[in-house]
From TrEMBL:
It comes from Streptomyces griseicoloratus. ATP-dependent carboxylate-amine ligase which exhibits weak glutamate--cysteine ligase activity. This is Putative glutamate--cysteine ligase 2. Belongs to the glutamate--cysteine ligase type 2 family. YbdK subfamily. It catalyses: L-cysteine + L-glutamate + ATP = gamma-L-glutamyl-L-cysteine + ADP + phosphate + H(+).
Amino acid sequence: MRTVGVEEELLLVDPETGEPRALSAAVLARASQDPGDQGVFEKELHEQMLEFATHPQADMARLHAEIVRCREEAARHAGEIGCAVAALATSPLPVSPAVGVNRRYQWMADQYRVVVHEQLVLGCHVHVAVESDEEGVAVIDRVRPWLSVLAALSANSPFWQGKDSGYSSYRSRIWQRWPSAGPTELFGSAERYHRRVADMLATGTLLDEGMIYFDVRLSQRYPTVEFRVADVCLHAETAVLLAALARALVETAAREWREGREPAGHSVSLLRLAAWRAARSGLTSELLHPATMRRMPAEAVVRALLDHAGEALAADGDLERARESAARLLRRGNGARVQRELLERTGSLRDVVTECVRRTQAA
């Protein structure tokens, strides 16, 4: 059974006002004093962000428990210095992002200017183990059409600078400003993948391989493929659903590769349209079906994903859990829908953030 790890970026906020707080260095200093949390939390590009990474897990119940524990520990460390954490992919309230003070982040700020100074967005990255780079690239080629569905499930960023963006995942639209971000064409082999990365770095436009921001990529640090399309999810259960689906997509793609089945040849242009539709609509309307690239109700497209990956989900013991979790998500709505409903009920973005702080720590 393939292992899965999850990285989540959390927003640091004032518990009273809901406004983002640039206190990541202080929170990390607190976490470093706790032997159990050393190496779990990391700095990110902006000081209003805090990232954690789980251990590789084979069992989804254990992964769920670790995500909840990491969120609780992040909240505890943040609380000790007077702030809170929220699993929000953008700040509902206006914010002026503060860039972290280190050489890498300062290079990025000098190079990309307003992109860096406006881009306070928070994602969820899922790592799934692969046996080799060759298998990993075969997987990357074959999961491309399904990434937009994962993005729709996770959508959790309707607000931008105090206003409704009109999107379910505005984070994903902001993220596309990076020159290396987005879907990729078919690679066909690990050699071609690595050649493409080397060619991109040779332009001098990117600082290092960590700035290869493909929607799904080979990890630099681990023997994994890394899914990078998702917003950080408001509810831990949704993050676990993404992890289960990502693992099943990897296993399904690897089987297709071993059986000699060719990947779908959708162009990058079509994949960009599918990603835009997922960002705009989330689960509230229609998505592009990964097989046909034609509009269908979101619920039908989610069912298609569960069917496509169903054999692998069943083999991992995740099929019923995934079906039940997806059904709850469709009924309740993703984070974007929850945030909008909270605003409609309370009339206050501050109250939206306060409630999302509470939900971030809920099991």
